[in-house]
Design a protein that fits this description.
It is built from 14 helices and 17 strands. By secondary structure, it is an alpha/beta fold. α4 runs parallel beside α5 and α12 packs antiparallel against α13.
């Protein structure tokens, strides 16, 4: 048994507790959370800290397999140039890719991350996930704008999916589309049918740049030019006259849990449409990746005003300097100081656990759960605010 106390404990399932005591089993299972008024002075061996104790963080959007590209990609060049440069990168050996992923997983663990929604296009991370201590949902990503390649693209995704050996850590998986513009209707339909049959959760990159919006309105050539290189003379989604989500809405299941990732250029109309058409909808922000690639951020306020369920992600080390949910929270605090710390912690823990269907054990400090225990130090305790020097330490 262990006992932890700090200036505040954020159980997330209830209001923050000042000077409370969190009691756990040695393996991290929550036994109880004591408030000051019920403090038992006979308790001994209480580990006391300055800062905030909260559940372990959940990273709902990561590309672990791209960790080997850290430092290779130029910043602030825009998504199109990022993709162009990505295609030019020299091929790496399998052992280099795997080694970089191993180190990236260690980095996430040291940064208080306990669960990840991980995008994959290869088998490189499968063994790592099975051996590690972090919990994963693996999203096998599929894309091809060429309708003649739809079946081959889906078969590739099926083979990857079938090769995942699920266990306690790598505990679930699904097949998911890449982005609104990067699939043919035929491929969308195959993924939709699979998700329906397996009742699986789905994620999709969404409105990461203005190029995407312009593509669906017929005023953007960069995406079209890339598609032509892959043998697509004309995408049916080019110049639909609609925004991205309305253009592909019929190809997505409305009742399955859906995570829209990035949303950098989404507006109020996009949010209203999404909430009207999708029953269990989540929005993921990866602010440091947005700054790395497009050098811009979503309008956080419109999502909050609309009552959106928000999660956080790190994206990949190809588009980020580190894999730290706390750093994502600090970036949001810097650019959107109106967002309270308690809200950010909900985004970083409970909401992500719910979307990934890990909330039976993760996301909140509730009796019987084993959510991981983080200590956030170096904060403005009185103002309940993160500072540039704030840091996270994993206690359990």
């Amino acid at each position: 048994m262990r006992k932890f106390s700090s200036d505040y404990i954020f159980p997330v399932s209830e209001e923050p507790v000042k000077n409370g005591i969190l009691i756990t089993e040695d393996d991290g299972t929550i036994i109880d959370l004591l408030r000051v008024e019920s403090f038992d002075y006979s308790l001994t061996d209480v580990e006391c800290f300055n800062g905030i104790i909260c559940p372990g963080f959940v990273n709902t959007h990561c590309h672990l397999e791209l960790s080997y590209l850290k430092g290779f990609m130029p910043e602030h060049q825009g998504l199109n140039e990022f993709i162009v440069q990505l295609e030019k990168i020299r091929k790496f050996e399998d052992d280099e890719i795997i080694s970089a992923a191993v180190e990236a997983e260690k980095e996430m663990e040291s940064n208080g991350i306990v669960a990840i929604g991980d995008i994959c296009n290869s088998i490189h991370t499968f063994e790592i996930k099975n051996k590690g201590t972090l919990r994963y949902h693996t999203f096998v990503e599929s894309f091809s704008s060429n309708p003649d390649r739809a079946e081959a693209a889906f078969e590739k995704a099926l083979r990857l999916y079938a090769s995942i050996k699920l266990n306690e850590n790598n505990s679930s998986a699904s097949i998911t589309p890449h982005a609104p513009y990067s699939l043919s209707p035929a491929l969308f339909e195959m993924i939709k049918k699979f998700a329906e049959e397996h009742q699986s959760i789905v994620t999709i990159h969404h409105q990461e740049s203005e190029d995407e919006n312009r593509f669906f309105h017929g005023s953007e050539q960069k995406i079209s030019e890339r598609q032509i290189q892959f043998g697509v003379a004309s995408s049916v989604f080019y110049n639909t006259g609609l925004r991205p989500l309305p253009s592909i809405e019929k190809y997505l299941l409305h009742k399955n849990s859906l995570l829209l990732v990035h949303n950098t250029v989404s507006n109020n109309n996009d949010i209203v449409f999404a909430k009207e058409h999708f029953k269990d909808l989540y929005w993921c922000f990866c602010p440091n990746s947005n700054l790395y690639i497009e050098n811009m951020l979503p309008d956080f306020r419109i999502f909050m005003d609309a009552g959106c369920k928000i999660t956080l992600g790190t994206d990949s080390l190809a588009a980020n300097h580190c894999l730290s949910i706390l750093d994502e929270m600090k970036t949001i605090t810097l650019h959107a100081p109106f967002i309270e710390l308690e809200t950010l912690i909900i985004w970083a823990t409970k909401n992500g656990a719910e979307f990934l269907r890990f909330d039976d054990i993760l996301g909140t400090l509730e009796k019987g759960k084993q959510p991981g225990i983080n200590l956030i130090e170096g904060i403005d305790i009185n103002g309940q605010r993160l500072l540039p020097e704030s840091r996270v330490r994993r206690l359990l």
